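ARCHIVE CARD
Drawer: 12
Card no.: 0347
Subject: one protein chain, sequence and derived structure
Cross-reference: see card 0346
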Amino acid sequence: MKTASSTDWDRVKALKEEDIDPSDAPEWNASMFENAKIQHPDCKKTISIRLDSDLIDWYKSQGKGYQTRMAAVLRFYKEAKMKEVGKSK
């Protein structure tokens, strides 16, 4: 998870089966899946890239997820360039 959970996991782990009340949960049926679609996450590729050390240090100093943020900046640039030439993704 990217954010801290506010769930009291110790309390959840201590629950016994008979302590759980499923009465407010809907019954599963086929209609729940009529419009379901399987979505596969985009594949990430591992590459080797040479970047200036100050650039890497700065992104790392921003905390966990620095590679995701770097990818977001690259994606933003890509999409801006694609719009420039009138192309979509």
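Annotation on reverse: DSSP finds three helices and no strands in the chain. Residues 10 and 77 are 44 Å apart (CA to CA).
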